[in-house]
Structure formats: C-alpha cells, structure tokens
Amino acid sequence: QLQLQESGPGLVKPPETLSLTCTVSGGSISRSSYYWGWIRQPPGKGLEWIGSIYNSGSTNYNPSLKSRVSISVDTSKNQFSLKLNSVTASDTAVYYCARHWEYSGSSYMDVWGKGTTVTVSS
Amino acid sequence: QSVLTQPPSVSAAPGQKVTISCSGSSSNIGNNYVSWYQQFPGTAPKLLIFDNNQRPSGIPDRFSGSKSGTSATLGITGLQTGDEADYYCGTWDSSLSAGMVFGGGTKLTVL
C-alpha cells in the first residue's frame, strides 16, 4: 500500500526558505509513471497546487509561485522535496505531498500524505 | 479567487440527493478531465472521482461525476451524515498559465 509522509520544520522565519521532504513507502518513485506533487492549503481556504516532478526530474510549477519554487527528487532515497524561498506570512499553510497522474488532459492526485503545518512568523 | 467556481455551500437531508457544480472555461474543464476530492476537517483530501466520471476502487457508487461543456457536476445519492465534508473539483488548465487548478470548495451540510 503506497504511503506518503511529509517532514520538515513547522516554523519558518520570513524571508527564509521553506524546505519540506516527502518520503514514499510501499512503492518506487523511479519505477512509477506518475508525477509527484506538492499542494498547500492556507488556514480556512482551498487547495493550491504548487508543482510536480517526474522521476526523470522534469517539473511543472504553478506559474504564480514559479519564481520562488524548486522541487527535486532523490530516487535513491525514494523521496522528493520542496523548496519555497522568500517566504511571507501568506505562505502559512498545511502542505501536502501527493502522487499526481498527469497525461493527455487527465490530471488528478490519487494518494495523499497526511499533511504538515508550516507557519511563517518571525 | 479560484480558477474554477463552486458554490460555497449546499445542504440536503439524509437519504436525499445533492449535486455540486464546478464551472470553468475552455482552457480547463472544456478540454481536460475533471477530478473531485472529499475533505473532512483536519484531514487530507481524498480522491472521489477522476477522469470526469471514474471512481477509484473503494468509492461507493453513491458518488458520481459528469461533465458538459465547461462545467462539471458531482452527485451524491442516499446522503449520509458521514458525507458532511468539503468537496473540491480539480482539472488541468492548458492556458499560458498551465497547471493543476482547483475550485474554491463546497461545504456539504447534511441536515
């Protein structure tokens, strides 16, 4: 059974860099035809896709965050990571990692991590 | 302001049917597949419907999805109190600002 688990600091100071890692268990990132994505949800608000990465390292990013975001993959550790720089209070959110199917107009997240809360505050 | 528009809330009595709409444009819903997610407070979203009307294994057939033009609809029949949750639609947007987009979410209340 595929499981995803987010990890990283729960508090980040502005304007530092938010760094999170998603560890995948029960399946291999390198042998998968899926993308692996990050989604966030500010308190009391809806879902926002941040970006996704394929096992080859190919990435797609939300255009509104693209200038501040970097997603990388480490297939040897079965992990993928998110870096969001120059954070402000508006980046405070629950951050989810998820398996992301994206092909020929079909796009959905079918397995999600439990989420991790990140607060941006000095 | 979300790219996809959903009603903020809907309500219905137990046993009844409810529909939740999701409106977009030709660059997203009009030319791509729609997915739906269910989220209970404090938990991660769960995939309910993918590719407009397909249910993942384990999702009961009380949940259904449809798409027409630039709009999509989630239907839930035989409402149960346990269905009370937030529901989100999602799809790929193929415009110059390409990427995965979601609706603002709909709070379902089972009266």
Oligomer: heterodimer
- Structural class by helix and strand composition of chain A: mainly beta
Element order, helices and strands of chain B? EEEEEEEEE
Radius of gyration of chain A: 14 Å
How would you sum up the global shape of chain A?
globular
Structure overview:
The complex is a heterodimer of chains A (122) and B (111). With 122 residues, chain A is an all-beta fold. Chain A is 0% helix and 54% strand. In chain A, strands 2, 4, 5, 6, 9, 10 and 11 form a seven-stranded mixed beta sheet that branches. Chain A has a four-stranded antiparallel beta sheet with strand order 1-3-8-7, with no helix packed on it. In chain A, β7 (69-74) and β8 (79-84) form a beta hairpin. Chain A is globular, with a radius of gyration of 14 Å. The model of chain A has no long low-confidence stretch (mean pLDDT 96). By secondary structure, chain B is mostly beta strands. Chain B has no helices and nine strands. Chain B has strands at 9-12, 18-23, 34-39, 46-49, 63-68, 71-76, 86-93, 99-102, 106-110. In chain B, the strands form two sheets. In chain B, strands 1, 3, 4, 7, 8 and 9 form a six-stranded mixed beta sheet that branches. A three-stranded antiparallel beta sheet of chain B has the order 2-6-5, with no helix packed on it. Chain B is globular. Chains A and B meet through β5, β9 and β10 of A and β7 and β8 of B.
Quick structural summary:
The complex is a heterodimer of chains A (122) and B (111). By secondary structure, chain A is an all-beta fold.
